[in-house]
Amino acid sequence: MLDPLLSAARPLLGTAFTLWGAAATWLELLAVVLSLGMVWANMRVNPVAWPLAIISSMLYLLLFADSKLYGEASLQVMFVVLAAWGWWQWLRGHASDGRALRVQVLSPRQRLAVASATLAAWPLLGWLLASSTDSDVPYLDALPTVGSIAGQLLLGRKYLENWPVWLVVNLVSVGLFAYKALWLTALLYAVFAVLSVLGWRAWRRLEQPWLPTQPAVLPPL
Questions:
Q1: Nearest Cα residue to 129 out of 145, 152, 109, 117
Q2: Strand, helix or coil at 64?
Q3: Contact 91/51 with Cβ under 8 angstroms?
Q4: Is 134 strand, coil or helix?
Q5: pLDDT-derived band of residue 63, with 50, 70 and 90 as boundaries?
Q6: What are the residues whose beta carbons fall under 8 Å from the beta carbon of 144, sequence distance 6 or more?
Q7: Contact 54, 17 (CB under 8 A)
């Protein structure tokens, strides 16, 4: 099914420039620029991040499929769906107390549940990629794939913990894309790792206890 899309995108898969002996394509360059814009908007809790995420994910779907990174390619389909959901959440979603969705934190039990689900899904997806595709890095491909799904879900609900999840995902992805000689994307994910730390700090300043408004106490006359 991807073959017609890859054929249509073939002009964009032409070489834009060479980086460390490997060709960087126009498609990769465009995806990098849009992805940086997406993270910049996420750090500022700006909903424009979501349409940028949709477009960049569609471009990376083609790039990763062309590089036989099937886990990462499949992840982009999930990203498009989750980006549409996250866009709606940021514009119309509500927190559990009925207020407009805001930056919030997970409870310790929720953190354990997210970590357990992610670690359990990693070897399962790795086995699936190893047994059903010609991927040469199935388990390395699987780890950032399942981690990215967790990060995207947390981001969509404005949980602060999305940033440490993305930090781990981005660091692993640097090694994965360097191994595949996708140097421009490897550099992008190294920048993403730094931006994950900055985003974490920026959202920590936004997260605060949200208490019911107290009536003002007037000074005595």
A1: 145
A2: helix
A3: no
A4: coil
A5: confident
A6: 72, 75, 169, 172, 173, 176
A7: no
